Amino acid sequence: MSKQHRSPDQYPYPVFRIGIIGGGQLGRMLVKAARRIGCTCVVLDPTPESPAGQVSGRQILADSHDPDALQQLADQVDVITFDIEDIDVAILSTIAQRGHRILPPTALLAEIQDKLRQKQLLLRLGIPSAEFVAAEQPDVDSFARFGYPLVQKARRGGYDGRGVVVMRSAADFDQALPVPSLIERFIPAAKELAVIVVRGQEGEVRSYDPVEMCFRSGENILDMLLAPARLPAATAAAACRLAIETVTALEGVGIFGVELFLTQDGELLVNEVAPRTHNSGHYTIEACITDQFEQHLRAITGLPLGVTDQLMPAAMINLLGAPGESGPPVIRGLRAALAIPGVSVHLYGKAETRPFRKMGHVTVLDADIERAREKAEQVRSLIEIGGEQD
């Protein structure tokens, strides 16, 4: 076919070249999804044989704040995205001004990666969220004036429960983080929810059903996820509407994880927004027609968004490094876990384990959500990621 008569629905191979800043587990699963739709990936990460680099086959060994390395990445790909939020937005903005595509946009990342600016943005947009104030230099008096119980969040760098402290009373102030922060009203939530939302380049928005996030008491890392959330239909629909409203107002492109509180009074509040694929969406790999990783790629490349329908209820647990163990990982109980019907194990390929490090996850499918939950609990009792050093 001659060039002038080429169909607009015709692509060379690879269909798109994707640059991923960050080589962790999110990037790893993004690379796997990219291969399915004919895309190749180049990963930028300072760790040799990073989880994403192992499967992409192409990795630039450099830090995400290295301007030369970021430009090198941009020169090799059609679009850049990321699996981390600790990125130098100023450098990326300069690269974008040179004509390179970066999605979600750097201006939005600048607003979201700073937790205080994110909360201020949600407030300006009229998105319901917990009351908050800035705490640039945390001190006893300012916390007392705001009132307990409260939650302190570091403005930058928090993830997987780090950078967040719940204080029930002034007696807990000695746990305060000595960094620029915000403090917000503690919400005694009936449930903590998440809605994965995708927005395309033309403004089309789709959401997955709300999921229920369960946390161990006193910890801020996801313990178990149930999909769909055990909610009345009207509440689930309201959660989807709020999440879609939030992402639409942000004018983002790609996948967004919108974390919500369902208060004991039945009110829905946005907790945080993540401008990337999200831990709460891992279940979609097995449970949904289009998983969150392929969906993100469709959005940032301009391909049609996929159907978000869920095929079967699912429960998901994170596989964390065992307490007191470190070094090269040793997976215990794998055969027993895989013998349970409906179990899928995902290991992230990390060369070293340490206590509570995310080393993988397990998704369990079952026609009944309670049976899926029970099987996930069984898997948790069987499988453990230990280390050769203890």
TrEMBL record:
Residues 119-301 form the ATP-grasp domain. Catalyzes the ATP-dependent conversion of 5-aminoimidazole ribonucleotide (AIR) and HCO(3)(-) to N5-carboxyaminoimidazole ribonucleotide (N5-CAIR). Catalyzes the ATP-dependent conversion of 5-aminoimidazole ribonucleotide (AIR) and HCO(3)- to N5-carboxyaminoimidazole ribonucleotide (N5-CAIR). Keywords: ATP-binding, Decarboxylase, Ligase, Lyase, Nucleotide-binding, Purine biosynthesis. One of its GO terms (biological process) is 'de novo' IMP biosynthetic process. Pathway: Purine metabolism; IMP biosynthesis via de novo pathway; 5-amino-1-(5-phospho-D-ribosyl)imidazole-4-carboxylate from 5-amino-1-(5-phospho-D-ribosyl)imidazole (N5-CAIR route): step 1/2. It is an enzyme of class 6 (ligase). GO terms for cellular component: cytosol. This is N5-carboxyaminoimidazole ribonucleotide synthase. It comes from the Bacteria. ATP binds at K115, K153, E184, R185, F186, I187, E192, N271, E272. Its EC number is 6.3.4.18. Belongs to the PurK/PurT family. NCBIfam families: PRK06019.1-5, purK. Pfam families: ATP-grasp (PF02222), PurK_C (PF17769), RS_preATP-grasp-like (PF22660). Homodimer. It catalyses: 5-amino-1-(5-phospho-beta-D-ribosyl)imidazole + hydrogencarbonate + ATP = 5-carboxyamino-1-(5-phospho-D-ribosyl)imidazole + ADP + phosphate + 2 H(+).
